[in-house]
Amino acid sequence: MSTQPAAPGAAPLSSAPPAKLSTALPTELARPIATTLAAFEASRAAGADEDVHMVAAVVDCVVSALSAPGALVADPFAGFGTTLARAAALGRRTFGVELLPERVELVRRLVPSAQVIEGDARELLRLARTATPTVDAGSVDLILTSPPYMTANNHPADPLTAYEHDTGDYARYLAELGLVAAQCARLVRPGGFVVWNVADILHHGHTTHLIVDCGKVLDRHFTRVGVTEIAWNVYPHDLVADALLVFQRQ
Ligand SMILES: C[S@@+](CC[C@H](N)C(=O)[O-])C[C@H]1O[C@@H](n2cnc3c(N)ncnc32)[C@H](O)[C@@H]1O
């Protein structure tokens, strides 16, 4: 794991919004979260393809630790809806954005209570204003997401077009994730949390350090609370490290 070890935890955050910024991860996120390939495969949404690695138990852990029942939880890369489904099951309100219409339809079927908008996360704030009811800037309590991944080498497909166009460029990819992060920073309320799940990838003998690279992008927009390792018994696909980057808005 190429990331810094997580700091020892403070008391879990449970109900009221924190009065001041957290300086340490809550207990649930202050140590690696162990998971298995079997648990992931059992909890994966039907039809989900191999670029999706979000584990339901990891979502439960983050949502419980960093939001209260009734809170608004958002995912700008909603995918197959793991974040929204688990957040709704835990009594949170949910809002998501997803580029691919067939995935939007799937999430709407899976999570009827979720507000899911078809569109591009690079336009997150504009899309949030079209939701019913409107999701206003500063109204989201927790953003938990996992962006589409990219390797720095041999990767013509552009992740932010859902790999549908061969316009991929690693530096531009990171810059565009920065655009999404900037809008997450506007959407989340002061004191609210932003958690991105990202992984390092070994591809054609070269490791792309997405955890560090995305961390640098996100550090420009939020205060970093810590990094939680997701410890797999066997990594899925070509992952070689997996982490939750945990931030808070000042
Ligand atoms: C890693 S998956 C998210 C997985 C999700 N957390 C889950 O567990 O199902 C990334 C998702 O982002 C979507 N996506 C790609 N580019 C996008 C964009 N520009 N705006 C919104 N969604 C996008 C992809 O279609 C994909 O479903």
From TrEMBL:
Q: Which GO terms describe its biological process?
A: DNA restriction-modification system; methylation
Q: Does the keyword Methyltransferase apply?
A: yes
Domain DNA methylase N-4/N-6, residue spans: 59-107
Gene Ontology MF terms? DNA binding; N-methyltransferase activity; site-specific DNA-methyltransferase (cytosine-N4-specific) activity
> What is the main EC category here?
transferase
Matching entries from CDD domains are given as: AdoMet_MTases (cd02440)
Cross-referenced InterPro entries: DNA_methylase_N4/N6 (IPR002941), MeTrfase_CN4_CS (IPR017985), RM_Methyltransferase (IPR001091), SAM-dependent_MTases_sf (IPR029063)
Q: Which domain of life is it from?
A: Bacteria
Report the EC code(s) recorded for this entry: 2.1.1.-
Q: Which UniProt keywords apply?
A: DNA-binding, Methyltransferase, Restriction system, S-adenosyl-L-methionine, Transferase
* Residue ranges the record marks as coiled coil: none
* UniProt catalytic activity: a 2'-deoxycytidine in DNA + S-adenosyl-L-methionine = an N(4)-methyl-2'-deoxycytidine in DNA + S-adenosyl-L-homocysteine + H(+)
Pfam families cross-referenced by the UniProt entry: N6_N4_Mtase
Q: Which family does it belong to?
A: Belongs to the N(4)/N(6)-methyltransferase family. N(4) subfamily.
Q: What's the name of the protein? A: Methyltransferase
Q: Which organism is it from?
A: Leucobacter komagatae
